[in-house]
Amino acid sequence: MMGLQEFLADNYRTELTAFRAVLNGIPDEAFGIDRLGHSPAWHALHIADWLRLTVLGDRTANYHYLGWEDKDWAQAMRTDAAPVQQDASKADILARLDTVGEQAVAYLQNASDADMEGMTFSPSAPTGERPRLAAVGLHLRHIAYHRGQVVIGQKD
């Protein structure tokens, strides 16, 4: 029987592969162009940032693509330069997504039961935190949502 951690890692791996496939299909010259509010580049960096925050629990203050930039908590998390800027090359942005995605899958694969229990920082939640498993589950669906946004944004 597949354990919880393997199940989560496998689902993240599958969703990130599907998201990456959609991003791969965007021509380089269109990757940085806003469609329906954001560019494919922004969506990729947005998911990388939320993977760091939600799955890895990284609180480094270099978040620039959380999508809540008008909120005090998001502004407090962006005092340092972004690891990769939205105007970077498609290859650099996708490399960033791949690196963070691989770290997240590895973390989930190797997480203990205790790592999956309790509450976790979740600034968009009404109380600022939510149960760890709920946060990880919500974020998995969040990746699928942004995959769909990129697809819809490419339709004329």
Write the layout of secondary structure elements.
Layout: H1 4-24, H2 40-55, H3 72-76, H4 90-110, E1 119-121, E2 129-131, H5 132-153
Antiparallel strand pairs: 1-2
Helix pairs in contact: 1-4, 1-5, 2-4, 2-5
* Number of DSSP helical runs: 5
According to DSSP, the number of beta strands is: 2
**CATH homologous superfamily placement:** dinb family like domain
Structural class: mainly alpha
Q: Determine the mean pLDDT.
A: 94
CATH topology: Four Helix Bundle (Hemerythrin (Met), subunit A)
Q: Oligomeric form of this entry?
A: single chain
> Order of strands across the widest beta sheet?
1-2
Task: Please mark out the parts with pLDDT under 50 across 5 or more consecutive residues, or reply none.
Answer: none
Topology pattern, helix = H, strand = E: HHHHEEH
Number of structural units classed as domains? 1
Amount of beta strand: under 5%
Helix content: 40-55%
CATH class: Mainly Alpha
Give the name of the CATH architecture.
Answer: Up-down Bundle
Q: What gross morphology would you assign? A: globular
Q: What does the main sheet amount to?
A: 2 strands, antiparallel
Q: Compute the separation of the termini in Å.
A: 45 Å
Radius of gyration over all CA atoms, rounded: 15 Å
